[in-house]
Design a protein that fits this description.
Blueprint lengths: L2 H15 L24 H13 L16 H8 L5
């Protein structure tokens, strides 16, 4: 899957599950947890979604909280190495 496709799918999932709708300035650098767009409870479901996009399990013991900072950090952590 192309990088742009992955980023689009991540963005769509976030927008559908947002606790606080992001503003017009929503971008791949927007702080997802800090701005309350996603809650820490959303992360479990989001990891399952990421696994479905990757086609493989994510080792949750190796996940650092900073990974969920933004779409940029999510892409780098979960998809860049496989691209």
């Amino acid at each position: 899957m192309q990088e742009s496709d992955v980023r689009h799918k991540l963005r769509d999932w976030i927008l559908k599950h947002a606790k606080t709708p992001p503003g017009k300035d929503f971008s791949d650098q927007t702080a997802l947890l800090e701005q309350g767009i996603l809650s820490s409870l959303d992360i479990v479901e989001f990891v399952l979604f990421i696994e479905s996009l990757r086609g493989e399990d994510v080792d949750v013991e190796d996940i650092e909280p900073a990974v969920f900072t933004s779409i940029d950090s999510l892409y780098e952590a979960f998809f860049a190495a496989t691209a």
